[in-house]
Amino acid sequence: MSVSSRPQKTALIVAKRVVDDIYRGGQTAGDRLPPERVMLEHYGVGRGTLREALRFLELQGVLTLKPGPGGGPVIQKPDATYLANGLVLLLQFSESPFSMIVEARRDLEPVMARHAASRMKKDSLDQLGNSVEQMRDNLESRDIFLATNREFHELIAWGSGNAMYGFLIDALVDIVDGTHMGVDYPEQRRKAILGAHERILSALQTHDGDSSFAAMEEHMGEFVRYMQRRYSEVLHQTVTWDIL
Fold first, then answer.
1. I want to staple 180 with a disulfide (CB 3.0 to 4.6 A). Which of 163, 203, 242, 243 is the partner?
2. Exposed/middle/buried for 35, CB within 10 Å: 0-12, 13-18, 19+?
3. Can you give the pLDDT of all 244 residues of the chain as single tens digits?
4. Are 137 and 191 in contact, with CB atoms under 8 Å apart?
5. Which residues, if any, are the signal sequence (predicted)?
6. Do 15 and 56 touch, CB atoms closer than 8 A?
7. What is the C-alpha to C-alpha distance for residues 178 and 228, in angstroms, rounded to an integer?
């Protein structure tokens, strides 16, 4: 029997119904769900099953369960942290090396840049320009460099107009640069990355998809070569959950 054909737990079925009701009801973050007695009657399950369903949704970032009088389940908007946890656990249990993340980044980010060239809004392009400027003015600061480097790639991912790319980069942004695994970026390397960001920004500002793709492809190729030359041992390390 395949995994997909296994009967679902009642609590998971209820959790899906709760999410469907939230969506169809137009509820948003901060809204409260009905009292437990109302939900028990509506879903036709026992208290234990309902609480298991709500706990599952809390672990997925859909709800927060506030204790005490006036508490109960409150809707919240999930962020990419939950995707990151799932992805990294999958990679760890499949014994995937960090090189797979590097390879995926090399393959996907040029595509994101091509889409962003035609879809990125002016305010996002302005933010991207500010990110490059801030990196340029603070190259001596490792912390500011890392923050602006991550912001740059997040802005392009979301600027692609494809939420899948945006959530994926959001999920992996804290580990794709390898710093949690001991990778460092001395000032000379920071200057090279700044130059790459300037070229990508210039291509995006002209809305040239081919040039944006090529500039990002060159940037990612440089990143791969840097990792191979200086941190080949990191590339072979298995991705583990503790890097998040």
1. 243
2. exposed
3. 444 555 579 999 999 999 999 999 999 999 999 999 999 999 999 999 999 999 999 999 999 998 877 778 999 999 999 999 999 999 999 999 999 999 999 999 999 999 999 999 999 999 999 999 999 999 999 999 999 999 999 999 999 999 999 999 999 888 899 999 999 999 999 999 999 999 999 999 999 999 999 999 999 999 999 999 999 999 999 999 998 8
4. no
5. none
6. yes
7. 12
Residue linked to tokens 């939950």: 82
Give the residue carrying structure tokens 């672990």: 59
- List domains and CATH numbers for the chain: 3-75 (1.10.10.10), 81-243 (1.20.120.530)
- Name the pTM for this structure: 0.89
**Cross-strand partners of 64:** 74
Residues constituting the chain: 244
